[in-house]
Every structure is written in C-alpha cells, then in structure tokens.
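Homework help board

Subject: predicted structure for assignment chain

Our instructor gave us this sequence and asked us to write out the predicted structure in token form, then describe one feature. I got the tokens but I'm not sure how to describe them. Can anyone check?
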Amino acid sequence: MKKLLFLSLFLCSLTGFAQTLSLPIDFESTTQTYTFNDFNGGGATVIPNPQSSGINTSAHVAQMVKSPGEVWGGSFMELSNPIDFVAARSFKIKVYAPRAGARLLLKVENLTDGAIYHQLEDTVTTANSWEELSFDMRYINLNKQYSKIVFIFDMDVMGDGSANFTFLFDDIQLVNEGPYLDQIDLPVTFDDATVDYGMTDFGGNYSSVVADPAGGANKVAMATKSLGAAGWAGTTIGRPVGLATAIPLNAANSKMNVRIYAPRAGITIRLKVEDAGDPTRSVETDAITTQAQAWETLEFDFNNEAMGTAVLNPAYNFNMASIFFHFGVEGINAGADTVYYFDDVKFGPSGVGIEELLEQGLVYYPNPVREVLALRADAPIGTIRLFDLMGKEVLQRQADSEYVNMDVSMLPAAIYWMQVEINGIRGSFKLVKAE
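My token output:
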C-alpha cells in the first residue's frame, strides 16, 4: 500500500512539473508542456521549424492554421502564474506569415474572468520571412492578473485552412524596452516619431499607419471596413487609455476637424468623443464627404449631436476620440466603399468650406423645412445636393443663382445633409425635414 501511495504521489508530482509554463516561451524546453487550447477554427501545434532562416533558426516553432469557424478563431495558452507586468511591459513575438499585411492580435486574459483582458494588434510587413512583432502593454491595468495568452491571426477575417491562413510564431517574451513612445494627443498628425500612434479597432474595422495615398511624404492612418464589419465598426484614435489631455469641448467651442480621403462623395463619417474611464459619458456627431479619392477637411460640430445620441456635456472628461467610416452600413453592404484614410485630427473649426460659404453670405431657411427651402448668397449658388444619413443622394439641384427656392416636399421626414457649392467651395449643413 505504501509503495502504491508513493507511486501515485510521484506520478502526480511529475504531471504537475510537466505542465508548468512560464515566459519566455521558445518551444524548446523539455521541462515545460506547450498546451494550446484552440477555439472557433484556430488550430495551434508545436512543429519542427520548417522555415529555419533569418532571425529564427531554432529547432521548434508553433504553427497556427486558421480554418473555417469564426472570424475570431485562435488559440490560447495558460501560464502557471500571472504575468509580471511591473518589471517589463513589452511583448516580442517572432512571426512568419504567408503575406504582408497579416495581423496578429495578442491578448492577455485573467485565468477565470474573461472580462478582464488587455489586447493589442501588430501587422506583418514582409511575406515569407521571420519578423519580430512588438506589443506595448504599458497601459495595462496593473491591479488585475493575467495568466492566459491568446493568439488570433487576422481578426475579423474568416480562415479557410489553406497555406494563406497558415502562420508560424516563436520566441514569446516580455521585455523592458524603454524609453517608450509618448501617449497620443491632439493634434494627431501620424508624423511624429516620438508618439505612439497605435490605434484600437472594433466591430470589424482594422487600421494601420501608411504612406499618403495622394503621394505626399507624410504618414496617414488607413482604416478598412472588413466584409464582416458591423454598421458601428470604427477605430479609436489611440490606445484604450485615450489621449494624454482632455479635449476642451464646450458650447462655444464645440468643433473638431479631420482630414479625410474617401472612395466617394456622400459617405457619412461619425466622430465620437468620450471619457476613456466611463463610456457612458460621450457625444457623437456626423459629417459627410464631398470629394472622391481626394483629401478634404470635414468639420464635426458636437453641438449638433447625432440623432439618438447624448447631447454635449462640457462637464465630462473627453479624453478619447473614435471615428466611424460609412457609419450605419455593414461591411457586407459597403461594396467598394471599404478603404478610408484620415489625418490631422484637430480641435476647433476647420476654417474651410462651411466658414467660407458663410462669408459668401449663404443663408438657408426654414430649418426644419416642410415644403420649400430658400437659399440666399452674395454669389451664385452652384450645385445643391441632399444626402440621407446612409450617404445616399436623394435630391440634386443645379442652381446658378444667388436666390434659390428648392422644393423638398416629396422627401420623407428625416435628417439630411445638404451640400452647397459656391465658386468651387463646398460645405455641408444639417437639414431637418419636418412632416
């Protein structure tokens, strides 16, 4: 009996020892067990390194095959002890991907409470070559514990199990890599090498910092609405911690402006600001694009809150901003309107378009309007276009006159965007059509 008890305790001891797992993880240890827990189409295993080259000539690596299941399919590993983020807060992971632009979402999670987590995403820049990705965990909540490491490649894209969705990764380590980049703040230009321009996507949007599509030497943000994106998909401009300083919005200073490069005119762009620590404290407003494949500055006035959203409360601490492209339209219905660029996110009025039209003496009334909208200006008014909140053009009028009476009686009662052009200058105004 004593021998059996000793053997049982000995086997338990070996089992417990073999199942320990701690950072760094290089898949070479004979004393650690590299157990992957796959979910929703993700499948990870440890294999001999099939691409021993460049920065990674180790004997073993992890392979992830993303098969049909869910767009968030992946795998996770459980560590024996919570991760110590006090001493070091930057993850490094070597990745070998079949294509440039592939993304790895790295998530750390509490062992028993999935609502406690912190996640970041980085993008592969070179196909078929080992590359080291970085994940700055500087803003993680140190009051929580994290014992799971979750790996999801190409979040929001359905895998098909092919070579195009087969990824290798290795050498998962936590390092102290300071000095760290500065926290993002307004104005956001994407050109300052000392600023952390990492952004936070949600709802099926994904973003990166790229070269100006118009050929400039500057950097801009590119946002793509994936096929599976929700109508509310968007991008928070910065990490979840928000901006370094609060946006000083109030009734007298209620505007922000953003440069936008969109695939066509008539697309609704929403801007939302909120308290990073309390998402119930927010205000949202819309603007509409007037250009196609060209840069324009859109102005967002938070005194004109989006329908069904909260009004501007200047007592709130607005230290986070998020932008939503083609708001209200799901990715599957967006057609070719999926890729957008933005730059120069600033506080204050735009100084172009609307202000210049008002200087031309433009007035329009009544608003709300039931039947006939009157427009007056000091110079001939050119094209007048009305769009609904989904970005669909519902009415157009070529005026070429300083005095215009426009029949809108056939339009359903709703909120519209009216684009007015005078001497080549365009501006958009909110118009309410009453019953």
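Reply (TA_rk): Your tokens look well-formed. For the description, you could write something like this. The first helix runs from residue 2 to 18. That's the kind of observation they're looking for.
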